[in-house]
Amino acid sequence: MLQSLTSNSCVRxxxxxxxxxxxxxxxxxxxxxxxxxxxxxxxxxxxxEDLLRQDLxxxxxxxxxxxxxxxxxRLETFxxxxxxxxxxxxxxxxxxxxxxxxxxxxxxxFASTILSTTGYGHTAPLSDGGKAFCIIYSVIGIxxxxxxxxxxxxxxxxxxxxxxxxxxxxxxxxxKPFVALVHANLLAVVAVSCFFLIPAAIFSAxxxxxxxxxxxxxxxxxxxxxxxxxxxxxxxxxxxxxxxYKLGITGLLPENWEFDVYLLLGLIAMLVVLETFCELQxxxxxxxxxxxxxxxxxxxxxxxDHDQLAFSAVDHTASPQEEKTEPFVDxxxxxxxxxxxxxxx
Length: 345
Known about the structure:
Layout: H1 2-16, H2 18-66, H3 72-87, H4 104-115, H5 128-172, H6 176-206, H7 212-223, H8 242-247, E1 248-250, E2 255-257, H9 258-278, H10 281-288, H11 298-329
GO molecular function: outward rectifier potassium channel activity; potassium ion leak channel activity
Protein name: Potassium channel subfamily K member
Catalytic activity: L-glutamate(out) = L-glutamate(in); NH4(+)(in) = NH4(+)(out); K(+)(in) = K(+)(out); Rb(+)(in) = Rb(+)(out)
C-alpha cells in the first residue's frame, strides 16, 4: 500500500513538472553534444596539428643551419612580429604587399561582417580610435541590422510561404500541416542550391586554391555567421577584379562587391527558411515541450475576480428586494360581509 502511494506521488510529481524535466533533458543533451563535438574535433584535428608543428620545427632548424649568421633569438623576434602583424591582416610577403586591408572596398567588407556578426577575423582595427569606433558602430549597427532583416523577412514570408501554402490548401483541399511540411523542404532545397551549391562551384572556379569542399565550407561558415576566417575570398595574389569581386561578396565580401551582395541575400534566404520551419505545426508542438507554460497576467486575474464578486453581490442584493415586494404582489381583495361591493353600499 505504501509503495503504491509512493509511486503514485512520484508520477504526479513528474507530470506536474513535465516541462522542467524536459528542459533538464534538453540541457543534458546539449552538454553531451558539446562533449561529442570536442571528442570528434580533437581526434580528427590533433594529428594534423602535430604534423604541422613538426614541419615548422624542421623548416626552422633547416633555415638556421643554412643561415648560421642569424641567431635563433633574432629569428624568434622577427617571426613574432610577423605573426602579430598577420593577426591584423598585414603580411610581409612580397605577393601580399599590393593588397590593402583598409581601402574603401575592404572597409565595406569589414563593416558588413561586423553588422552581420560573421566576423571572419582576418582583419581587425589597428588603432585605438578604430577599436572604439568599432564598439560604437556595432552597438548601433547590430540591432539596426536585426530590425532590417526582420522587416525584410516578414514581407518575404507572405509571398514565399504563407500565400503558397494557403493557395494549395484551399485549391486542392490538402492538409495544411502536410502542405507546410512539403513546402518547407522544397524551400530548403532551393535555398541550398542557390546559396551553397552554385556559389561553391563559382568560388572553386574563381579561387584557384579552393576545391569544391572548401568553397562549400566557406559558404556555410559565412551564411551561418560563424565566420572562422580561415577562408576569405579575394585575398589571393593577383586576384582578378579583386575590388569588384569583394564588393559582390559583401553581398559576399568587401573588395569583391559580389560577396557583399551574396552575404546579404544569403542571410535573408537562411532566415526565411528558418522562419518557415519554425512555423511548422510539428516544431511548434516540439518547442512547447521545453517552454514554460504561459500564465495569466495578474491584472487579468484581478479583473476576473472583481467581476465574479460584482456578480455575486448583485445576486445577494436582489433577493431582499424580491422578498420586500412580495406583500405588495399578493394583496387580498376586500369584500363586504354580505358579499356586495362596499363602495356601492
